Task: structure prediction
Amino acid sequence: AAEMHGRKEPYRTAELARLLYNEMLSTAEVLRKWRGDDEDEDEEDGVDEEKEGDTFFNRAKNTDVEDTEDRHIPKYDRSELEEKWADEENIEELRSRFASANLLKEGAGDDEE
Amino acid sequence: MATVPSAAPIKFEGSSHLASRLVLSTLTGRPVRISQIRSSSHTNPGLLAHEVSFLRLLDAITNGSAIEFSMTGTTVVYKPGLIIGSAAGYGASGGVIRHELPRECTRGVSWFLIPLCMLAGFAKAKVNVLFTGPGVITSATEKGDVSVDAVRTAILPLYKHFGIQNDIELRILKRSNPGPGGKGGGGEVQLVFGHQVRLPKTIHLLNPGRVKRIRGVAYSTGVAAANNARMIETARGVLNTLVADTYIFSDVSSAPLIPAPERGNAAAKKKIGVGFGLSLVAESSTGALYSADVASPPQGGEAPEDIGKACAYQLLETISHGGCASNVGASTMLTLMAMGSEDVGRLTLGKEVIGTEDILQLARDLRAFGMSGWGLRDADREDEVVVSIVGKGVGNVGRKIA
Result:
């Protein structure tokens, strides 16, 4: 539990603003930090050894893969997407983003606002 | 900018973000030097066919550009000239620049169109480019390019926000899917961009609104029209419960022919670019556009039902990212915002959208070109960020001088 608390909450806007122009980090690293994917992130250590190895490894991989080209459509795993959106719950969650979902519901939402 | 002594070029490394860097260079008039382009690759170091072609295109629509390659093609120095557009006397015949894409091109024509549109608004004269040749792929590609339908329906309308809206048209003259091995196609597309501005308007798009309608285009080239019907049916099956106002057009065309001279017959032609695909665009009540694109792979073997379903799910995913611009449109909007007048423009983006390497790199590149940094703050909704960008008033260099 302590670990959970120690870790910063991911996806914080201020955090991204801080990392955005930090030229020491590559964009991939910035993203990983921001998402909180870095398991062993220690604020004090800055760059611990394992991470350094990690980025090195990453970079080597990037040059191998020809797919680092600028994509306009991000690469999606189709089966994952299908799984996600075949789930009724996720659809229901998204429903608030649609105008036509349910006029009654929308009216109620307006009243609340 | 002939009178100004050229500044030292801005240095970049690597092959990624090449197009956006060249666009920024052209817009700001600052020379760039891009080195180490695939220098570690043993099989194909240096620039690829589509990148060389893009440099040629830049050369065609500008006047006074200088492009230098190194021997191996791993380094490019680009000194931008003025964006002239398709004015007569600058390589355009009858007001149209014919741009031929080579057979080896693996990227969809949207890879050229999206950056070209960014430049076109700042040209001196109307931009009218006809993309033709054996390398024009109009469909979505495996490499992550969107289809031309998405450019037409999800990118070009974005320019309306910036006060650029008249006489803009993308004509799809001939469709083509990627050819064998994902290389080449035989399509033909004409971009007419006739609204040039001094500065784009400052935008304040904060409310993404709600999705109110979905439009789409299903295309089949050289295959049975039934494929369209099958894609449309499955896509509607997913989307109809959410948006009743869903309409998907169906476009069937025969496969394009490209010259393929043989030993015995010099005039031989062969069919290329057979396949099908689906492009969906969702529009929200405030004019935000979300798009999804899936096309059949060049090696085939996928049922149209799968394509339709994958595309519909991709659309839902894009919508769920939220914000006023999707992945596809964000770079266009952010670049135009940076070029705008010296005022703060604001744009809400989904965290998933801004949290991509492309966008982060764009932020850094913009700063490298002397643009102001981005301000980020939380938006009303949990998963969105408001990006505020102070324009630099760079705008249309050509118009400033004239």
